[in-house]
Amino acid sequence: MHQGLYVVHIAAEMAPVAKVGGLGDVVAGLGKALQRRGHLVEIILPKYDCMQYDRVRDLRALDTVVESYFDGKLYKNKIWIGTVEGLPVHFIEPQHPSKFFWRGQFYGEKDDFKRFSYFSRAALELLLQSGKKPDIIHCHDWQTAFVAPLYWDLYAPKGLDSARICFTCHNFEYQGTSSASDLGSCGLDVNQLNRPDRMQDHSSGDRINPVKGAIIFSNIVTTVSPTYAQEVRTSEGGKGLHSTLNSNSKKFIGILNGIDTDSWNPATDPFLKAQFNAKDLQGKEENKYALRKQLGLSSAESRRPLVGCITRLVPQKGVHLIRHAIYRTLELGGQFVLLGSSPVPHIQREFEGIEQQFKSHDHVRLLLKYDEALSHSIYAASDMFIIPSIFEPCGLTQMIAMRYGSIPIARKTGGLNDSVFDIDDDTIPTQFQNGFTFQTADEQGLNYALERALNHYKKDEEKWMRLMEKVMSIDFSWASSATQYEELYTRSVARARASPNRT
Fold this sequence. Notes:
The protein is α/β, with parallel strands linked by helices.
């Protein structure tokens, strides 16, 4: 094993202590996988009041106080350290009158731009003042995109110059744009950066785009699947950043996320009625029976197919297709279970209406909430899983479903296109065929895949069992993604050492 690298992740989320979406899973999953490969990995997070403190081990405050600049003054930051999932984490608690991370929620505040540009600078200040010399500083999404320009403009000149910067964008929908003057608060030079070839947003001359800045100022830029990396280089997929990505395409790559195969493991999952694995599928039946009983669904026919869906009900996830799938599954003689809720009031109301309609129905149940334990039970009980996303940077649902022997029915987009391969597609080698896919985001497209899946299930039980065994044996762990990151890091560090004066 070559000499390990020293990697610092600066992020707004990390599972399980501060998790809103997939970003939190990536920081923890990639961090653990790199640590297993012999690298020194540390994480820097804001110290939110609403973190799951019970998941942090040995949390303690350091004596040293780190001062960082904001709005023309220096502010003190109290630094805490602890261990999360075996990884060392530094938590930054700003002593700032705005109580940036004392708001009862992670995002969605009017001053998010200020909160996270403050945090990005404080994180670099922590590295500088503690004399740390990471090989790689890895920042994520718009919230810590500020790290890239801050590093090259302010911190490399101060002597924190050992690092290469890697930036990962987990979803190009969210770019954190703000009025140009807001960028000055963290000490960046607005006049220098508010230019079309730097951080100026395409929408207007006085808007600044943190994600654009990170693409331009980072040494490595990644996103969460190869197909999504292609999609965002087109005008409709790139949300205004396609030309920036294309002119920086040499350093831009898509790497498929993994899942945490320790917590998503049907053989050891404590939430399940019965544990099972690819060699012993008996437990899958027991979980199906238990879930039906728990939700009051009919168990009259064990071979009635159960279709699962776990999602945030937002337009990105193909809400109209999910709604259609409920009724179509029923017509085709299946059962349907949906777990998820919507932050969009009219969508939430619509699904509450459907929930009422099927309240005491034998074959359909909607659970409009977030429920960790129930999600595990649904993955384990369902025969197939529906993921009809309009766009999907990576998607973890399809990977988790397969791990639990549930066959994905997915639209060919983003990471779904890189992980679900149609069993009726002759151009795909048999060993990779693992689900049912469709191309167009409409009812016909969905019907085509759904009907084939249900027919397949009903027609040949033996063949279906073999398909379940196959999908449960696919390796969706972080191991291969971490290897790709390791190669990118190593090459970038080697290039820097070969020509020290080149940024």
